[in-house]
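Q: Could you fold this chain for me?
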Amino acid sequence: MKKSKEVETYIDDCDILSAIGLNEIRERFQLLLESKMTTIPVLIHPTAIISEEVIIDLVTVIIAGAIITPSVI
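A: Sure. Below is the predicted structure, expressed as C-alpha cells.
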C-alpha cells in the first residue's frame, strides 16, 4: 500500500500490520485498522526464543534472535 486510505481495499482479504516508523502516524493508522475490525497478526520470527510463561499480546512483532524471558513486561 502506498496510502493508508488503500487499506480498505485489503481488509477483507489480508491481515494488516502497521510498520510505520513515526509513532504518531503509526498510532493513527493502528486506530484506523482497529476501527475497521481488521485482523492484525502477531508476528514471531522462528529463531526467537520465548519462554512458555510469556503472554504475547495483540499487535506484537518479535524479531530474529530475540530472547524473551518470563520477567519481561
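A (continued): The chain has two helices and four strands.
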